[in-house]
Recover the amino acids of this structure.
């Protein structure tokens, strides 16, 4: 105790110790805020994933849509942590008429396969000229656009060798949209019509939070959400206002000019972590509608269905209708009898998107 006249004042710890303690408390509070926000968003996302999966049991996705005939091959580009079977419903719908080939071809690092696990290789000469459905499979599920854009270039060249056209159509899903834009940004050609689906073209709050949690090693939140240290490069591209995302956006006009037609499709169906003053806005659970948009682009925002959830967008009927109109697919009368697919297994909120 220190006496000051008649007053007694408790001795204070040294200033350096007080500063360190205050800083530590401030860091812990910030960790709790970031971790809590990330976990809360993940909990909401998981609930809507389960809702979409429950709806799949009631009605097979795309069963209400007509079968189609395609004029050009379609190349599908997946996003971050995209389940290998994410596009099964879409691929099978495109094959159901019998007009677009007998099976989908999966392309991985310049090689072709009959299966998404890349265990059944195909020689170039084995691929029939009438095959129209192709799916990119990246080297790793969480590879960032800086890695996947060169793989897109390699796979697109193989597709063109196999079935011939100078330009093909592309559906780029989620971070696959950023990979496709990065490919175009580097002078890539060969895409006629490009649909960008559920892509954080201007970044996302999810990417910000996940990147911050990784940088600060907030393990309890990362473990709950299924986010790993190896996801950090991908999060840099998907985070709102990150250097990578802003740099790519700065050259949007040349990316847009590299394709003949472009449409951006997203959803406004469920609470989505937001970048602005409001913690949540209506989006697809990952991407805010305003973060989909790019200057002078045709943007369609859908709502009113459980499949307008980020993870279910590739097999939402409204999205398929947008594809039919945008790519100019004709209705086909034929149909194939295809058995139902098992739903994906849900490990963590973001374990397999």
């Amino acid at each position: 105790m220190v006496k000051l006249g008649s007053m007694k004042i408790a001795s204070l710890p040294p200033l350096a110790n007080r500063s360190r303690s205050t800083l530590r408390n401030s860091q812990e509070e910030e960790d709790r805020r970031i971790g809590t926000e990330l976990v809360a968003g993940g909990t909401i996302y998981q609930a809507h994933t389960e809702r979409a999966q429950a709806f799949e049991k009631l009605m097979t996705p795309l069963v209400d849509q007509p079968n189609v005939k395609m004029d050009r091959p379609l190349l599908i580009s997946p996003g971050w942590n995209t389940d290998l079977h994410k596009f099964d419903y879409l691929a099978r719908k495109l094959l159901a008429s019998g007009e677009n080939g007998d099976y989908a071809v999966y392309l991985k690092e310049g090689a072709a396969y009959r299966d998404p696990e890349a265990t059944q290789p195909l020689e170039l000469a084995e691929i029939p000229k009438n095959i129209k459905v192709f799916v990119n499979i990246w080297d790793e599920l969480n590879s960032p656009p800086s890695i996947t854009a060169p793989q897109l270039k390699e796979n697109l060249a193989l597709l063109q060798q196999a079935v011939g056209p100078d330009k093909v159509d592309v559906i780029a899903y989620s971070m696959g949209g950023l990979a496709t834009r990065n490919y175009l940004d580097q002078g890539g050609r060969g895409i006629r019509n490009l649909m960008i689906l559920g892509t954080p073209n201007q970044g996302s709050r999810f990417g910000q939070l996940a990147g911050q949690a990784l940088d600060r090693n907030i393990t309890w939140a990362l473990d709950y959400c299924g986010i790993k240290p190896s996801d950090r490069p991908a999060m840099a591209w998907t985070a709102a206002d990150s250097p990578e995302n802003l740099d790519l956006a700065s050259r949007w006009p040349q990316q847009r000019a590299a394709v003949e037609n472009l449409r951006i499709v997203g959803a406004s169906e469920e609470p989505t972590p937001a970048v602005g003053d409001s913690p949540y806005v209506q989006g697809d659970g990952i991407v805010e509608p305003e973060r989909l948009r790019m200057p002078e682009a045709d943007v369609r925002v859908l709502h009113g269905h459980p499949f307008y959830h980020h993870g279910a967008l590739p097999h939402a009927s409204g999205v398929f209708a947008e594809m039919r109109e945008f790519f100019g697919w004709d209705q086909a009368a034929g149909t194939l009898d295809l058995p139902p697919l098992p739903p994906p297994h849900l490990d963590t909120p973001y374990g397999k998107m």
